[in-house]
Amino acid sequence: TIWFMVILLRRMHRSNNYWFLSFSVMLSSICGCLGFVLPNNNELDQDLPRFGLGTAALGRPGYINLDRDETVGTSNVRSVEYMRELTESMMDYVFELNKNGEMPLWFDCARSYGKSEEFVGDFLRKRGIKPKDVYVSSKWGYEYVADWNVALADGEPHEVKDHSIGMFLKQVEETVARLGEYVRLYQIHSATFESGVLTNADVLDALARCRRERGWRIGLSVSGPNQDAVIRAALAVETADGARLFDSVQCTFNLLEQKAGPALLEAHRAGVDVIVKEGLANGRALRSLTLAAVCAREPALRELG
Prior knowledge:
Blueprint: H1 2-12, H2 18-31, E1 36-38, E2 53-54, H3 68-72, H4 80-97, E3 105-108, H5 116-126, E4 134-140, E5 142-144, E6 159-161, H6 165-178, E7 183-191, H7 201-214, E8 217-222, H8 227-235, E9 248-252, H9 261-269, E10 273-277, H10 289-297, H11 299-304
Parallel strand pairs: 2-3, 3-4, 4-7, 7-8, 8-9, 9-10
Antiparallel strand pairs: 1-10, 5-6
């Protein structure tokens, strides 16, 4: 199913319009992919994977996706080793699907996804996967503070947001220690106007230096009701030599949330890679009666499901 979608999207993505983006999200919601990419048209980016496996729900015991007990196991069994084994089984499955090398494989991590960077990095090294044969991205800006607990006291957060230069310098070294040679893309996690990250000169300079010295692409993820405005603001951020800083944007876009669509297409046309997250709306899209009715009416979609 995933490979059919890849072929279809490769044929369609040059259409460069909002209908394509909406249709792609519909397919990703039906088929259960965790993310997809609308790459820009630069020759250097033609190896960018079209679909990826996000690790937010795999790298830590507690997450916001629906029916977690049924799909992952009850909270009392989600030990570190249990979640490591689950992550590795998912990654093994993805590699098995791609045993003919039909599509570059992409795994998306974050410092706040518990032990996702550790799980992914250890798996790739144990399997002898070469960095050139996989695309790995991660994010900085949130710190996981739940200490592998699912139930916390009222008001206690699982993660704490911090877009300061100190947090960046700390977390980039943590990412290097766990994923190091595999990282291709490093992203600000949930950039907002309130965090001030897009106007913090020290952070922006450090990101530009990271790209220059480490060879990583630099991106940002966005969330909240102002995703579109943040995307447009990010497109205007430049390095000291006048080049655009951000190579990619990762944005919530699904059947239930499409406000950012026009801004995402503006980013795509400007040469920025677009990464869709929460394509299933954390499971809510799969409960859509309208979507179920569409699938029931269309033989091709029934086969895809």
